[in-house]
Design goal:
36% of the residues lie in helices and 13% in strands.
């Protein structure tokens, strides 16, 4: 896929013709990404590698464990589903396919920051957030703290080498950080900040048997708060639900093709992000750490209106209950909209979402480039999702909210 430079006159017919902040883009890993910094003692059992599984499928493995969701996503000659085929991807899902059938070669715009900037400039994307590629499918397999930190730290060092954590204020790459072990998490936080990170990516769910916002984790958050770091919760396998899904007879870490509708609804969809974000609000996290912004990426936004109503309701119901982080001083919905940003799906009814919540100040756009389930060009997001918004709110979603969040001038 190649981007055509924008002319001086925006193409007639676009719903939105202004500059863009893209809050959901991805990289594809180069061959050395999974190996170059991994300590030797962890490579055999925990190193990531592509190979044929016993069933013949070509898949990413963690040691000898096949990452089921990755099976046949990438071909042996490292071709991938084509970018920007949202409607084809949705059709494939309805037909019981994991992805669109076609495959294309990985291009330099997917692996190199200088080449990515060229395509961003062609699309008038002033700045963007960049998340890991195929690595995201393997994070739930890193289920022991010491090996997990070894693999994550190695991957983050590769990201820094290949992309930088802040490339010319055009690309904010998000290293992966976990709270699985507090002392090691603190060291991770210090390292990513020292190397220029403005945003990080964390798995959704609890850590150490507690909410991530529990005061026991405050030493970690204090470091991020001082630096004004944004924390992204990107869609992935919410492995903390493994035991809960098991009582329903729903095993996790399965192929997309073998996931039931129940698993899609409760293991992969709204529940993990609602539980995670509400824990921060209801544990009064932002009273302690007002400089931290939380971002939900690729979880959609249609769940937000009902979540805000419910949080406001339960605040009153729990008025005389136990508040681990102290009583809230204002409505949870107000706290949410001030400190949390949500990347909507192109297929979301954003007009209805804004009508229900009262404003668009907390919404961001995301193209998901270069993934197949995204839009072919970021500007198409406005045509798909913003058609019922005012011009003012469209500009907020497409550009202004993201730039303000990143501390960049409009």
């Amino acid at each position: 896929m190649s981007a055509q430079p924008l002319s001086d006159t925006p193409t007639p017919g676009w719903r939105y013709k202004g500059p863009i902040f893209d809050a959901d883009t991805h990289l594809y890993e180069t061959p050395e990404a999974f190996d170059v910094y991994v300590p030797a003692k962890y490579k055999a059992d925990w190193g990531l590698n592509y190979k044929h599984a016993e069933d013949g499928q070509f898949a990413l493995h963690v040691g000898n464990r096949k990452v089921e969701i990755s099976a046949d996503y990438m071909t042996e000659d490292f071709k991938i589903p084509p970018p920007g085929k949202l409607h084809e991807w949705l059709r494939a899902q309805k037909e019981g396919k994991a992805e669109v059938d076609m495959r294309v070669a990985i291009t330099p715009t997917m692996t190199d920051p200088a080449e990515r900037v060229k395509v961003l400039d062609a699309w008038d994307v002033r700045s963007s957030m960049l998340y890991c590629g195929n690595f995201v499918s393997a994070i739930s397999y890193l289920d022991e703290p010491d090996p997990a930190y070894a693999i994550l730290n190695a991957y983050n060092r590769w990201m820094l080498d290949q992309w930088k954590f802040n490339y010319q204020n055009k690309i904010f790459t998000c290293p992966v950080v976990t709270l699985a072990d507090l002392p090691q998490a603190i060291e991770q936080a210090k390292w990513v900040i020292a190397n220029g990170a403005k945003f990080i990516l964390m798995p959704m769910g609890p850590f150490n048997g507690k909410a991530p916002a529990h005061p026991d984790h405050d030493p970690f958050w204090a470091i991020l708060n001082e630096a004004g770091i944004g924390v992204v919760f990107h869609v992935s396998e919410a492995i903390y639900l493994k035991d809960h899904m098991a009582v329903w007879g729903e095993p996790m870490q399965k192929s997309r093709l073998r996931q039931t509708a129940f698993m899609w609804m409760h293991g992969y969809s709204e529940r993990p992000v609602i539980e995670t974000l509400s824990s921060f609000v209801l544990l009064n996290f932002f009273d302690r750490f007002p400089n931290i912004t939380l971002i939900s990426a690729e979880n959609g936004a249609e769940w937000v209106p009902s979540m805000l109503v419910k949080m406001d309701k339960v605040r009153g119901m729990a008025k005389n209950g136990y508040w681990p982080g102290g009583q809230l001083k204002e409505r949870p919905s107000k706290i949410f909209k001030r400190h949390i940003k949500i990347v909507a799906y192109p297929e979301d009814d954003i007009g209805q979402i804004v009508a229900q919540t009262g404003d668009a100040d907390w919404l961001l756009m995301g193209s998901d480039y270069p993934h197949s389930e995204g839009v072919e060009e970021p500007r198409i997001f406005a045509d798909e999702a913003c058609k019922d918004l005012t011009d003012e709110d469209t500009a907020k979603v497409m550009y202004e909210n993201g730039m303000k969040m990143a501390g960049l001038p409009l």
